[in-house]
Amino acid sequence: MATYDAATEQSASASAAQGSASSEFKSALGDPKVVDLNGDGNRPEGVVTTVEELEASKKGRFAYFKTRDFYIVLVLGQILALCITSTNTFSSLLAAQGTSIPAFQTFFNYVLLNIVYTCFTLYRYGFQRWYRMLLKDGWKYIILSFLDVQGNYFTVLAYRYTTILSAQLINFFAIVTVVIVSFVFLHVRYHVTQVAGILICIGGVGILFGSDHITGSSDSADPISKGNQVKGDLFALLGAACYGLSNVAEEFLVSKRPLYEVVGQLAFWGMIWNGAQAGIFDRKSFQTATWNSKVGGYLTGYTLILAMFYSLAPLMFRLASAAFFNVSLLTGNFWGVCIGVKVFHLHIHWMYPIAFVCILGGLLVYFVGRKVLGEATKPWLGKNQEQGVAGLGTARRKVIKGDTVV
Fold first, then answer.
1. Contact residues for 71 (Cβ-Cβ < 8 A; gap 6+)
2. pLDDT of 380-404, one tens digit each?
């Protein structure tokens, strides 16, 4: 009996010591505060805070400006604008070589993305799980990829029939589409400063168009008939609408699913859609195209940069929104002229720097009054983003892991 009591006392003493050591260890690591998100006394495993607590960590109308995410989003937007400008430059260089195959040249982008992201998805999921995902959610990605391919196709097609100025003005319809669709279907509510920021950015682009009109750089070299002008404007309108719809759809999907799955499926089905259109509409252009080492280099550069654009865009959709994504791309006209100075020997008009500063000012105004998480919190994912994926750039990731960079 005495032996049992001694053993029991020794065991209890060891347990107490172990518990003390465990407490000291947790204290040393800074044991995260786990909160009740369900309201039923159950604490979700791994959760360290709530959206409300995160947003209360910094207060004021400029709370978002004090976060790292704000600068990441701002820089990322300009990188994406540079990517678009670079692909447009490569398209111009290809056209100058006598190679104008818009659908076919984008096909390589989908192939590259498919090789990278679909293969990685198969590695993570295994073939059976990937196949089940295909059966369950494949229709969503088929629609997404169709909208993306048509946006690319009709926008490029518009430039054959209308002026650059007219097509670019109509491309603003993409922003209008994003705002309306997000408001109606995703229940996004825009703050007055966000609307003001968008309008200021559009005003900045208006200055760019004004300078182009003054210098005559937006005039078409060949006269365009009224019939072709209307046709081109309709193509531009259709392309902008497809772009806007695809951006909203991708923002919704990457908030709920892993990035590699969404991009992989976009590329998988996009490759099929794009390949079919290239085979139908680009056959004659393909036969008459010039093929040399320069063309090969331009196609390689176009494909790599566009693939980088498609890889970074989902991060923008998670950290910010489809609306801010489209507004950020408005600086692409300025970057295009900067590149054109070296490549096409263009001259920068004095109004261009003013327009660029105006657009950047609009981007800053857009986030005035936003809280710490900015637009990373999506209204369709629940109060604490519990219906979303805890992926890179999501608010859900911050709720689970605390103060992370993205």
1. none
2. 999 889 999 999 999 999 888 765 4
